[in-house]
Amino acid sequence: MESALSATFDILSFGAVIVLVVLGLGIIAGMMGIFNFAHGEFVLLGAYATYLAYSFGLPVWLGMLGAPLVVAAIGFVLERLFIRHFYAAPIVAMLGTYALGLIIREGVRGLIGGLYITVPEPIVGSFTVGGVQLSRWRFAIVVITTAVVLASYLLLTRTSFGLRGRAALENPSLARASGISTSALYAVTFTFGAALAGLAGALVVPVFSLSADLGVRFLIEGFLAIMLGGIGSFEGSMVGAAVVGMLSAALPWAVAPVLADVLTFVIAIVFVKFKPGGLIAERRTNYA
Fold first, then answer.
1. Which of 57, 59, 65, 233 has the fewest CB atoms within 10 Å distance of its CB?
2. Bridge partners (DSSP) listed for residue 127
3. Bridge-partner residues for 129, per DSSP?
4. How many CB atoms lie within 10 A of CB 57?
5. Could you give the percent of the chain with pLDDT greater than 70?
6. What is the C-alpha separation between 43 and 201, in angstroms, rounded?
7. With contact defined as beta carbons under 8 Å apart, do 37 and 218 qualify?
């Protein structure tokens, strides 16, 4: 019983991490129609910003609050300088964002020297449930992720911003004719997605440590989650993230960790093969 409870908590907390990472990625893909291959590096930048604040003697929690803002600012600048030129060609957008991600990753690698750096948890200790010690910080990640997902869902489905975003994706020309600035809307959407990635990096760095390759694994699992859940669907992205996160966390309890990673990909790929529309197969623009 205690082992089952401990395993359930580990699976739940890791699933929350994947959901948080996929959230920003899914919003950009769903509302802008492009895949941001630099998303994993935005997660890395959020982790690095948190580490910088801590290394300067500031509280870790303060670094976590500032990290999304820092990454949002970087995302906004990159979108204005480079990424907005890629919207008409999704393949070029993938290659372009991949190149930007590579530059960011190698830049951080140069700054930290290829090391694995530990950042302490802002909420230390554990609490006991059913005789099992559960990490307070991992529990906090689950709570924060739940709150952020709900807030993002309301933003995209209950506000004029979400409505304009759907209109711009559905028919950009008609949206512009209606007075919607698609350029400004895309900039805000990309910045928001980058901020969410920064938040994800800030929250997970005490759990996974800081390394230049921190975002790589999350990026791959994030894309897998979006493909599994269904491109263009907020609910699909979240369901796909939950499934991939649960598989990634649960399979190592049954098989070797390396085999578990392979099995996660195989299961997801086989599913997408037979259901290419994803778990929640709907139209491309269904944030409503």
1. 57
2. 134
3. 132
4. 6
5. 93
6. 4
7. no
Sole residue written with tokens 């800081």: 210
Alpha-carbon distance of 37 to 193, in angstroms, equals: 12
Give the global pTM: 0.87
- Does the pLDDT at position 281 exceed 60? no
CA 204-127-9 angle, to 5 degrees, is 55
Question: Given this model, what pLDDT does residue 169 score?
Answer: 66
pLDDT exceeds cutoff 90 at 30: no
Tokens at 40, concatenated: 């994993």
- 139 has pLDDT over 60: yes
Cβ distance 213 to 105 under 8 Å? yes
User: SS3 breakdown of the chain: % helix, strand, coil, rounded to 5?
Assistant: 75, 5, 20
CA-closest candidate to residue 22, choices 242, 280, 281: 242
Angle at 16 between CA 248 and CA 245, to 5 degrees: 15
AA letter at 190: F
